[in-house]
Design brief:
By secondary structure, the protein is an alpha/beta fold. The chain has 17 helices and 22 strands. It is globular, with a radius of gyration of 24 Å.
Length: about 500
């Protein structure tokens, strides 16, 4: 599809943008421009400053220094509404929709233009339907949000921006909750919108996606601009090197495993679990995991993965069925029993569940061992041994922090995850339940986390890898189990799986 020829004036021009937070220089004199009619990817590690730069463009933050121009006119945004009035809108990773309202209601909700108040609901629905068709984003304007798939909900967010006249769209990690097919549909939509002259700023850590959809890529590292390159003139390996500042093991995978005769470490027999609203979230899942095996659990977010992990590790009480470790049944809703049976848990919410953010790194590292020697003697904590253990784990797992006494909340996402991994892997586990262990992490941190999991599997640990990153599962898992609406719809050896087939299963199609 032909692109609109870029004019002499960029749609977005950000010059010498500097933004400081207490103790952090988030953007250091960054230049960024995006042309009319292009998809421009913004790439960088956690803490690189890309989200801050995107938030400044969207009016969420104001720069301390520098200036922003939209189509050659200097602007100062004091709020996201100011940005919207200038034609700039941001579609967030987590949607901001009212689930009980219709598509049409959500699209006009909060619109300052009073005219729609005097317009009949039918006329609004017709206008929304026409907008959706014109932009190749089919969605029923009368449907309630809760009735829609995640991909359809994302279309509503984009249509909401277009309804308000957005010419510049910022998308923050837009494929994180989508199936491969939904991601492909989104890419087609973005290319169509760019062909009509809109500017797309695409924030993502998935290099293959950026290569597929973008025209240019701008890379930030440690708050500074590293460079901008034409996508067709670069490669994922080169982009990863620009992000991290060194060569990265770009494809981590392992050889096919011979599971014949290996011990079954984990067995699920008809496991069911209620969700937070006391409705079934996991429905009769039966699955086995052998010593040294990685079983990947694939599915779109919200299909029971979190509840399944919590049912296995004893952190969810409303469960049924049997969870067996080494042939012996675990007590339902008893995390201490799971810990005693050497079941490690890497939860998906690393800050809310994985660590206590207000505690120090050292304190978080002993959360599972604070009652046992050598950390405690006769119930008394040995602070000298806590400090020594923490320093050892920080060195072994490359946790970047000023010291063991540093509050965990001050660490980057990747280092918080390393704290969780250090605690869980150092506990001598037989089984690891890892839920989205690399979600939101940059290339370097992802490389480190995957290497640790592969090392554990090579040592004979069984790993249940629950991930919404299908590429990650395809690279690491020996077998792939797909869940949809809480049910196990199929289990495939990795050699027999391909992205399109697994993607269809994630959407509810039978294998």
């Amino acid at each position: 599809m032909a692109r609109v020829t870029a004019g002499p004036v960029p749609a977005v021009a950000m010059r010498s943008i500097t933004k400081r937070f207490p103790g952090v220089l988030a953007n250091d004199a960054v230049d960024f421009d995006a042309r009319e009619g292009e998809v421009h990817a913004l790439l960088g590690e956690n803490g690189a400053g890309k989200s801050t730069l995107a938030s400044i463009l969207a009016g969420l933050y104001r720069p301390d220094e520098g200036e922003v121009e939209i189509y050659g006119r200097r602007v100062e945004f004091h709020s996201p509404r100011d940005a919207m009035e200038a034609g700039v809108s941001m579609v967030h990773q987590h949607f901001r929709l009212a689930a009980s309202l219709t598509v049409a209601d959500n699209i006009v909700l909060g619109d300052r233009r009073a005219g729609w108040l005097r317009t009949s609901p039918t006329a609004i629905e017709e206008k929304v339907d026409a907008l959706a068709k014109r932009n190749r984003m089919p969605v029923n304007p009368r449907a309630r949000i809760w009735q829609l798939s995640v991909g359809e909900q994302q279309r509503v967010e984009i249509l909401k921006a277009l309804y308000r006249g957005a010419r510049i769209l910022i998308l923050d990690e837009p494929t994180s909750l989508l199936t491969p097919q939904e991601a492909d549909d989104l890419f087609g939509t973005l290319r169509h919108m760019a062909s009509e002259g809109r500017t797309i700023v695409f924030v993502s850590h998935k290099l293959d996606e950026l290569m597929a959809v973008s025209d240019r890529v701008t890379v930030l590292r440690a708050g500074r601009l590293i460079g901008s390159v034409d996508t067709k003139e670069t490669s994922p390996r080169e982009l990863a090197r620009m992000m991290v500042g060194r060569e990265v093991v770009f494809k981590q995978s392992r050889e096919p495993q011979d599971l014949e005769g290996r011990e079954v470490l984990l067995e699920l027999r008809g496991v069911s679990a209620d969700g937070d609203l006391e409705l079934p979230a996991v429905r009769g899942v039966s699955l086995s995991l052998h010593a040294g095996e990685i079983v990947g659990v694939a599915g779109v977010s919200g299909n029971g993965q979190r509840e399944l992990a919590e049912a296995i590790t004893g952190t969810r009480s409303r469960t049924a069925g049997e969870v067996l470790v080494g042939g012996r049944r675990l007590r339902s809703g008893d995390p201490d029993h799971a810990i005693a049976r050497a079941v490690a848990h890497i939860p998906e919410d690393r800050l809310g569940t994985g660590v206590s953010p207000s505690l120090s790194v050292a304190d978080n590292l002993i959360l599972k061992s604070h009652r046992r020697p050598p950390i405690a003697t006769r119930g008394v904590l040995r602070h000298d041994r806590i400090a020594a253990s923490a320093k050892d784990l920080m060195h072994r797992f490359a946790i970047a922090a000023p010291g063991p006494d540093t509050p965990t909340r001050l660490l980057s996402g990747g280092n918080v995850q390393k704290v969780v991994l250090a605690r869980e892997l150092s506990s001598g586990p037989r089984v690891i339940v890892a839920a989205n262990p690399t979600r939101g992490l940059d290339v370097g941190a992802t490389e480190a986390v995957r290497a640790l999991l592969l090392k554990a599997a090579a040592a004979g640990v069984g790993i249940l890898l629950i991930s919404e990153d299908l590429d990650e599962i395809m690279a690491l898992a020996d077998r792939i189990a797909v869940v949809y609406e809480g049910r196990l719809v199929g289990v495939l050896p990795r050699a027999e799986a391909d992205v399109q087939h697994v993607g269809l299963m994630m959407a509810g199609s039978s294998p």
